[in-house]
Porin
Amino acid sequence: MKKALILALLCLAGAAAAQDTPSLEEMWKIIQQQQATIDSLQKQLAEQTEQVKVTSEQLEADVEAQQEAIAVVADAIEEQSAPANRVKIGGYGELHYNNLDSGDEFDFHRFVLFFGYDFNERTRFFSEIELEHALAGDGKPGEVELEQAYIEYLFNDSTKGTAGISLVPVGILNETHEPDTFFGVERNNVEKNIIPSTWWEAGLGLNKQFNDQLGLDLFISSGLNVPTSGSKAFNIRSGRQKVAEAVGSDLAYTARLRYNPVPGLQLAASYQHQTDLTQGALDVAADLFEINAQYQRDGFGLRALYAQWDLDNNVNTVNAARAEQMGYYLEPSYRFGADRRFGVFARYSVYNNDAADNNADDVEQMDLGFNFWLTPTTVFKFDYQDQREGGSDDGFNLGVGYSF
């Protein structure tokens, strides 16, 4: 503005020099007119600047509102498309032929279906329904079982909780037992009779992964209810209630520590305490201790496991029936050929859970055999079993299994 006034004065001065000088009053009017013009222009500029600012803020608000609307629509579309991308279906099965001293038998041992659903990124549902021995019903050999049905909630990337029917976190096979994941037609006797796999209970679980090497699993659940008389008295496997109107007088508390010190090596130790293994009948406390190792490097594999139950000795019936039940096995294996589709194994196992005879010998068994994976999840199996001490059920087994 000052520059404009100076320019006006210079113009007036030039005009005065060239011709008659105007009066001071006329000069002042000219200056006032120019000043008014300048003020008007400044006012228009300020108004236009404010209008641009308001328009910019409005545009930003409109863009943000449109983005929120798009997010809402996207969520709605995702909800509507849930059946396509949130439902999970799978399963496994295995057919066995057993040619043993105890008899020859064909048996579609297990037919299993998995069903899951992702409610959102944090909340999921898992379930497993199994038909054992192909035919269930009165007088039939099989059973229809609900082995898993639980909700899983992810608290964060390293911590999750579960509620419902879950597999007990113990052993090697109890949680991972699809036929393409292990050697041998039948599951090993130690995990079958001592742990006893497959073992599921109803309860609350917590899984924590501290880092890439160390993890912890906790499970508070329903417990076993073993018979207190007869040939199966205090037999651990006979105590599974399978969450079928299960007596819940005494709970079970399970903890497992997982450790992976180097690539290919997995170590785990589990401990369970149950205040009364008979659910109020005799007040018999019981403790399970189990430790296992799995190693895989190139084609070479090794599995080893030891498990032991200790029952309260305060009741004489327990002393006579079996206060301690234990088992262990060692299983080296080797996979070879194109895509390592062929595998051979040997397993040495020892166990003793004969509740009917406190003086029974340990059952010592040697298994030799091979697997052929037609695909990574379809497998053909053969093994020969030789029961040495404590048993005489020798022979061979054939099997085919799959998972998807």
